[in-house]
Design a protein that fits this description.
Length: about 150
């Protein structure tokens, strides 16, 4: 008896939870997908994510923003043993390659110890750095850089 009561309680809470997610309490509200008018079985064109201007400095939209990547990286290998970004951006190759050197903060581990090599927590560059792109935003927004809000 208790098991049936528990099952009923769980089912009722699921039904009520789904009902609260529906606009106007029913299926008459119009739901819109971020994918647009593309059906579930269809595929949409992948947006072009190539750099807008290779070598251009795209600036930053807020303080402490990681710099954007101003070149293509789609074939770059970054795994536990190899990081192709470091070939150009790690010291001393950066001067030969004419690439910006990675920040000194990338050579400090979680305990605050200075290292001779890039810290493991900073090894996967694309966790923070992304290529500059001219892709259309999925949703409209009114974001303004910090300097424009002053």
């Amino acid at each position: 008896m208790k098991t049936k009561l528990k099952i009923f309680a769980v089912a009722a809470s699921l039904v009520l939870g789904v009902a609260t997610l529906m606009p106007t309490g029913g299926v008459t509200g119009e739901l819109k997908s971020l994918r647009g008018e593309v059906g579930i079985g269809e595929t949409d064109a992948i947006p072009d994510i190539h750099a807008v201007k290779e070598g251009a400095d795209h600036g930053r939209a807020y303080r402490q923003q990681p710099p954007l990547i101003p070149h293509k990286i789609e074939k770059y290998e970054i795994d536990l043993k190899v990081n192709q970004c470091m070939y150009c951006h790690d010291w001393p190759n950066n001067t030969k390659m004419g690439a910006p050197k990675i920040s000194e903060t990338h050579y400090i581990d979680r305990q605050g110890n200075r290292l001779d090599n890039v810290a493991g927590t900073r090894w996967f560059c694309v966790q923070c750095h992304v290529p500059q792109t001219d892709a259309k935003p999925l949703v409209d927004n009114g974001f303004k850089p910090a300097t424009a809000v002053r």
